[in-house]
Known about the structure:
Blueprint: H1 3-23, H2 30-44, H3 52-60, H4 71-74, H5 82-89, H6 91-99, H7 110-114, H8 135-150, H9 161-171, H10 178-188, H11 197-204, H12 207-210
Helix pairs in contact: 2-3, 2-8, 8-9, 9-11
Amino acid sequence: MTGQLVSAYDSTIEGWSQALEMRNQETEGHSQRVADLTMQLVKKMCVDETCWVHIHRGVLLHDIGKMVVPDTILCKAGPLTESEHQIMRNHPHYAKDLLIKIPYLAPALEIPYCHHEKWDGSGYPRGLRGNEIPLEARIFSVIDVWDAMRSKRSYRDAIAEHQVIEYLNIESGRSFDPVIVNEFFDMMNFKPHASSELPRLILSQNPQKLNH
């Protein structure tokens, strides 16, 4: 494949990512921010360099499945109903259906399909546990939640940095791979501290929408 063709494909991927953010302006800039942080962490963790391009594409396409989710759900300011939440939880399946048919993008599928899996097996869509979850999805899930919680939404203000750090620390070994959380903290020079505010803060938010 020529360099010119690769460049054209990658420009198309960036266009898809931007188009999705235009549907929900609250997420404007999210894909580029998480792409930058994810690639920093991937390099810090010495992930095989041959995987970098697929990881970067996967990050930009991580929410491509939401193209199928109706605006009434995707842009809803209030809490989702159970049926709406189930539709939202289907977006990794939609991503798989969209991308697996494109040979050029199939190697980038792990993040769009698996970034909502959790270390303890309580995630979706397949309930993968621990190292069953692809490494790139485990890395990205930490970054994705970090950026989502640090960003303002219509239903909440941006959550303070120290509170998000403590949330990630509490969820290390539950939602997130503890090794990756530690690597992320080291990269960002974060030092978590216990906070009695945190459980009350997190419970006061709409947990369905902290990070879809």
